Automatic annotation (TrEMBL):
Record membrane topology: Multi-pass membrane protein
CDD domains (alphabetical): MFS_MMR_MDR_like
Main location: membrane
Domain of life, per lineage: Bacteria
Keyword set includes Nucleus: no
Keyword Iron-sulfur: no
Name assigned to this protein: Drug resistance transporter, EmrB/QacA subfamily
Start and end residues of each Major facilitator superfamily (MFS) profile domain: 22-472
Keywords: Cell membrane, Membrane, Transmembrane, Transmembrane helix, Transport
GO MF, one example: transmembrane transporter activity
Entry coiled-coil feature ranges: none
InterPro entries on file: MFS, MFS_dom, MFS_trans_sf, Sugar_transporter_CS
Listed GO CC annotations: plasma membrane
Amino acid sequence: MNVAQAAPASVASGLDPRRWKALILLCTANFMVILDAQIVIMGLPSISADLKLSPVAAQWALSANLLTFGGLLLLGGRAADLLGRRKVFIAGTALFLLVSLLSGFAWNAEVLLVARALHGVSAALMAPTALSILTNTFPEGRERNKAFAAWSGIASIGATVGLLLGGTLIDWLGWQSIFFVNVPVALLMLILSPVLLRESKDAGKQRTFDLAGAVVSTAALGLLVYILVEAPAKGWVSFHTLGLGVVFLVLVALTLVIEKRSAAPLVPLRLFRSPALVGGNVVTAIVAALAFGMSVAISQFSLGVLHYTALEFGLSQSAMPIAAVAGAYLAQAVLNRIGIRVVAVTGVVLLGAGCFLLTGISPTGTYWADVFPGLVLFGLGLGGGPVALAAAALNGIAKRDAGIASGFNTAAFQVGGAIGVAIVSTIIASHMAQAATNPAAVIEGFSQGFVACVIFAAVGLVLAVALLRKRGGGQLQVVPEQRTPSAH
């Protein structure tokens, strides 16, 4: 059957014949968001030297992006539902392009920090909206599972390519090039988006924002990210951390009160009646903590103890994204046959097993014996687990809620990642402080960092079994449909 014959069949079935090309575009957006985050980490030493950033300012070049990205995810997801998913995606991509130019041309620290904060805004518009469009474009079942596999696999590739590309670009062209490389890709995305993406939005509700809910929930989420970013330096039981923790809990309680009373809530509380959505997002946060925590430990060990160059480190890690792609596509192939819970549990077990093998890492060990097996197991779990968890969190969600549900899923990953970085960084730093009197404490710190990741996996395993429960037919419970007379 040729393309001309296949297209009418797709149209007749209600499926967009451009959906697979659209998937490439959406995965490219996910790839660029993750690539940018990784590549800036690699470029930070050069940026700090050139712009004379203090250590605090250098940290905020990363934290400013995390705060705006994490804080605005729910608002970005709901904006897509109400204003139009394609429209919001294009707006986010246009801002991403402009911010990349501003970052590359930054002439002082202040401009760079503003640009990085604005980058978080663009990512908060792009990432959940792209996932929402994906969810609405592909029907539940095999096709959507394949799309989730591509989304998950490209994320792992983006992280490693960022490490490889970052070091090479900085050495050859300077730190400005790590921002300018985004420009042609973003421009191509802007050109193709109106061609490949259908517009969709929630036409069944008033196109009004829950302003109070938006302000309070955004403040709560942003404050949580800030607490996690600052906790390793301020101390987990310091007055600063605990005081802000109390403020966060107050904001969460206030959000619940506002959303319960709102006629058009930013965060519809009915979504939380789905064990699949809750379980998928909670375990997603655990998996993110594992992924980011492991990344902190392996990168600091390789660059600081083994003294790898950026290129050597990127090459040494390449086994993980290759395994992640294999794990993602294996997961989507068996997801409908063996079920979401089995695939999710298997993914978490593989992640934990990979980290367990890495607990024995040492400066005198060999890559193939001590590192490679752990990376492969970890990669398989990192590819397969998120496919099942995305299916749990997004399957069964009404189209009108796809944006906010995608925002939840992306926010869960970001918050979980911040938790993993904060905890593992604290463990490593506490052992580093003992290095003057006990040199062996440095290696012990990295080992304990991987142990923390194993503990994350154990917690994730329990939660996956407990929350991703089934009903009579063997399918995960989903959000009950609540139709209104004006809903389509």
